[in-house]
Queue: 2 jobs
Job 1
Amino acid sequence: MYDIVIIGAGPAGLAAAVYGQRAEKKTLLIDEKGYGGQIINTPEVENYPAIQKISGFDFANNLYQQAADLGAELTFEKAVGIEDRDGIKIVKTEGGAYEAKAVIVATGAKNRPLGLDHEEELTGRGVAYCATCDGAFYRGRTVAVIGGGNTALEDAEVLSGLAEKVYLIHRRDAFRGEESNVKRIQGKENVEILLNTIPTAFLGEDRITGLRIQDKESGAERELQLDGVFVAIGQMPDNGAFAQQIQLDDKGYVAAGEDCLTKTPGIFTAGDCRTKKVRQLATAVADGAVAALAAVEYINQQ
Ligand code: NAP
């Protein structure tokens, strides 16, 4: 029996583990893939207070080490449900089940697909979702990045250092990402920014050869010859497996406020999987602290 089982070992889950262990609660992290969450794909984190610059990978490693040194355990499994049996929570995984006094759902979010035909078949064949992971395959090539948020801006910057030419394609006339990121990308000679532009079709049979795009104002379509397309249009949650125990909002995020409480006593939530306006590293770890301390209080009151 664990005191706290945390589903998801991204920054929110890892921060929750640090707070849980420091309160001397036996804590288990469950993650399908690894620890660190999305931040491991961010080359440089420059907006985390008190740390001027750190790679996302190092940030994740430091946070994991901190949690592990305090005694948190980690298992790599896919959590597939939560049951509440007379107050004891059972977290079911594909391979087994873990009992806990409290559970924190910190599942983060996954990449949102563009939704064009053949996207799934072309993924890994020219369609990619992570410039840090796959950018090196496109050294000296021509690529496009789709999106207008910080991820798209950062992906375009990473790719501008590898590819010969980068198109940055955004559906509106203003970027959503931070002004400092926008300025940096505007200064890159090999980046061509196409605003008010939407992708309408992937070109290529077995792998990407290009992208059909449409100018939103004129309606005119044209084709770009490309070796790769990086889709960076935000994330979406993946909380369906836990919907019975935690209320989800209309977009699938866990419906919880800043107190990180769900509709079920003893089940808490933290990080990007929660309904919130600002999804940042700082807000994810803040949630982790709030959720863990709420879980500790809940356990102590039982
Ligand atoms: P995001 O901020 O939600 O931006 C998604 C972008 O994709 C928006 O520009 C959106 O356009 C566009 N988009 C959405 N659906 C689209 C579609 N179907 N077709 C074309 N374009 C579409 O997502 P994100 O950039 O992944 O960032 C997620 C969160 O992580 C944000 O809070 C972000 O600030 C944070 N983040 C921070 C950093 C950092 O601080 N260094 C780095 C990466 C991410 P509209 O603008 O028109 O809606």
Note: Helices lie at 11-22, 56-69, 119-122, 131-134, 150-160, 179-186, 281-301.
Job 2
Amino acid sequence: MFDNSFALGVSCSALLICIVNLIYTFIQKRTDKTHNKIFVAILCILSINAINGIISGAYGDDVTRSDISFTITQVSRYAYFVTHTALCPLFFYYVCNVSFVSNRMSSLKAKLIFMPFILTELMALTNPLTHLVYKVDSDLKFQRQWGEIFIYLAALLYFVLAFAVFRTSWKFISGKRKPAMVFLFILVAVGVFMQLLDKNLKVEVLFEAVGFTGVMLSVENEDDRIDFGMGFYNRAALNLDIGSSFRHNRKLNLIILKLNNYDLIDRLIGNGETNTIADIISGYLTSHVKRYHIYVSEKNTFVMTLYDKDKESVDKLAEEIAARFEEPWDYKDFSVLFNSTVMVADIPNQIKSASEMFYMLDSPALDDNEKNLLKDEDLNFIMRRRAVEDAISRGFAENSYEVYYQPTFRIDGELHGAEALVRLFDKKLGSLYPDEFIPIAEQSGLIDDIDDFVLEEVCRFLGTGIPQKYNIDHINVNLSVIQCMRPRFVETIDEIVERNGIDKKLINFEITETIAASDYETLSKIIERLKDEGFMFSMDDYGTGYSNMSAVFSLDLDVVKIDKSILWGAEKSELGMVILENTIRMIQQMKKKILVEGVETVDHIKLLKKLQVDYLQGFYFSKPITKEEFIDFISDPLKKEFHIGSI
Ligand code: C2E
Ligand code: CA
Ligand code: CA
């Protein structure tokens, strides 16, 4: 049905497409990665096969032994079989590479998998002697031999294997790559099927060439994976590639470089030199690690993925990088010194999931870590943080939070109120203290739920009327400043308190002075609004921050809580005493009430009585205790008053 000129046209088109794809690939310089190289090899094979199609189309079956055409068709046919046999195995290898499977295979497994290829390739190569695949009979007619069946079976095997690998990697192949790969599989299958129906069609190579054009435009084109500022792969690419490494149990080492003062240096260098940092860093890193193994996340964090390297060489490289980043960098007229952290960790022993890796990259705790190189045990704190973060989130479902109360007293020893302090009793990690988990909850955005829970609990407790019965003026509830800034903060607080029918003046919110000066206005408005509604406010941990004092005192607060460190410092040195005395005097002049925390001894009480503070809180009276213990405590007249008057 189809004549030679049809096959000729089809083959010419296939050749043209392959050549264009090859040219485009070289112009775009996409030749450095293994899958780039396999891709080029596949295009070359398809080109040779297309040329073979052209030759057989041009000569048809009219060849004579004496003719040059005979030699040409013989050579071309031989080239066709030798190269075409390699096509499907290469395609399989390509899919493995794109989906990071290739290096996972043990060498034995790899050898076994490529056995059918080696055997069939040998058959094709030795065909002039063995005639296992085809022969040319005395009439110069081409005759297929049984060996060809093996070549087809092997091709089918690799095609099916490629598809299986593709299926298991589905999740880690980014959006537009999936349809291109599906399209390729369909085109190859249809092309082969049509050619089986009519061998003169010669459409297989054309279909494959078209399919690989799609691959070139999507899989080989990595624009969506690249961070153009740095020229490295971006965070999305890191997510996919690391996810895929986990999926396929690939072992690798990561070296993470974090430039903690990136923003500062970026600003110092100025707009005209925006590429300075990029130039310095990419120049240095690419001299050690291939560009396509480097990723950049959030501008200041670089991740190098090192496959198939032993721990010593990875550690050595990390040490070298860490040492280099301790030194300044000269760039044009600048000398730039980074504050860096280098971390080395391996997958899957130290880092057990992609999200754990991102947690490590983003961990803000690294900023004030004194070490410049973190490895092995140094990384435990990150794992601990992650475990704590998990405990924080599962705590809500598992009812692991509990509110403890620590009583506060007037200077004359009478009960005054209590501070609500949260505790987390996790099944796995045991008791967790707020000093550890509150900062983590603040960083991960889970603090809102904790603070809402505490307020709810306090409201319920006040709802029983028990605290009021024992003359508790109010219960103090800690607020994170982050929480105050969230939208609908006031509405949420009002909703909880009003739903429980609690008088607002029974609640005293504690806020700390650690807040960026720029947010003072917002904070001040929120406090004013809540105070107008009847709530009370205390300034917590006074003396620990570096805030602008006049701004602190411009906030309309009822009580200032002096931090325990200021009290304890007064015992240790004369200077400490001067600080305590002057702090108290200054707050008194501002006409604010003073509460001192951390009261542990009779001497503390004597001192504070002399200095005429208003309220006391500390282990001398009671540690934070459960609600039940607290009820016992306040209802026991012996415990309630400490007769400070007699001290
Ligand atoms: P804070 O608000 O300064 O709470 C006082 C801390 O000092 C409590 O530690 C308390 O147990 C401790 N303390 C009180 N008196 C003494 C004493 O005489 N000696 C000693 N050594 N310690 C004393 P805790 O309960 O571990 O809380 C630590 C911090 O966690 C709190 O500091 C507060 O900033 C935060 N926190 C606790 N509960 C909450 C909460 O519900 N929400 C928020 N946002 N933060 C909370
Ligand atoms: Ca507090
Ligand atoms: Ca405090």
Note: Residues 68-98 form the longest helix (31 residues).
